[in-house]
Amino acid sequence: MTWHVLGAGSLGSLWAARLARAGVPVRLLLRDRARLKAYEAAGGLTLVEQGQARLYPIAAELPSGTGPIERLLVACKAYDAEAAVQPLLPRLAPGAELILLQNGLGSQDQVALRVPHARCVLASSTEGAFRESDFQVVFAGHGFTWLGDPQRPGAPQWLDELEHAGIPHGWTPDILSRLWRKLALNCAINPLTVLHDCRNGGLAEHPAEVSVLCAELVELLQRCGQPAAAEDLHEEVLRVIQATAANYSSMYQDVANGRRTEISYLLGHACATAARHQLGLPHLERLHARLKAHLQQRGLPVT
Ligand code: NAD
Ligand code: KPL
């Protein structure tokens, strides 16, 4: 069965190239005619691994094409996912499966509401890839992707294809817990690195701020039915700060490069969930307000 990959950016290209080289049929769905023309001129996707670049001439088409889509990997940013899936609705085959690669929470529900008859598999990935230029992606070379479906715990057959393609993954009956845990880590680290203009390791200079945010995130996770995601959160945040001390967080890199952030699906989602549960989390709310003001000053979207 063909994998249609929506979004030929960092993660979408990484998945598409590995599936294609394992002999799995893949087709890219590109935004518009201009992008399709640019892709055809490039001759395919280039994946750079351990300094070695290799071109993968994967077939590409527009969302307005006509063939049925049975398996769709949605690899856009969280804020683009719902709108990107919309034009594909008439092409989704009965029983179609969507794999949602978005970080944070909120976009998965937005997409699922649009496709009530399809299966939505959610993913939480720590793989790292970045775009060197259009259709050329560099793979950091490590990471893992958890997959799961909160509605149907049974693992799909196509996990074999991921295995075959060398995509490190695991199936979990509790993908929401994994997504909440990553969201909490990202909320405790990423906004502070932006506001303090520092690498992850720089947060070692701000232990009180990190600690109070972790305490509020734990309260939130417990209140919204995710106690497992709350366990030892502060300890893990400190571990990640230390282990990734030399790195800039993904949100820091987005802001530094003038790119829209996924704030609404991370801190914004945490604050909205707290409000829905009538839970006052003053430090998290203040962090959200400071981050929005910071983005606004730089002319970046605050959602
Ligand atoms: P990206 O910006 O590199 O790629 C997204 C792609 O989607 C772009 O090529 C964009 O043109 C395309 N797109 C947007 N709207 C579209 C539309 N309507 N039709 C077709 N294509 C469309 O983003 P990314 O870094 O690959 O991130 C994707 C998701 O994966 C994000 O939620 C991110 O947080 C998450 N993630 C990324 C990494 C990473 O290392 N890059 C790691 C873990 C998680
Ligand atoms: O995932 C991350 C990111 O930068 O987005 C880490 C390294 C965990 C920091 O929150």
TrEMBL record:
* UniProt keyword terms in alphabetical order: NADP, Oxidoreductase, Pantothenate biosynthesis
UniProt pathway? Cofactor biosynthesis; (R)-pantothenate biosynthesis; (R)-pantoate from 3-methyl-2-oxobutanoate: step 2/2
State the reactions this protein catalyses: (R)-pantoate + NADP(+) = 2-dehydropantoate + NADPH + H(+)
- Transmembrane intervals: none
- Top EC group: oxidoreductase
Any one Gene Ontology BP term: pantothenate biosynthetic process
Q: Which GO terms describe its molecular function?
A: 2-dehydropantoate 2-reductase activity; NADP binding
Superkingdom of origin? Bacteria
This protein is called what?
2-dehydropantoate 2-reductase
**Originating organism:** Metapseudomonas resinovorans NBRC 106553
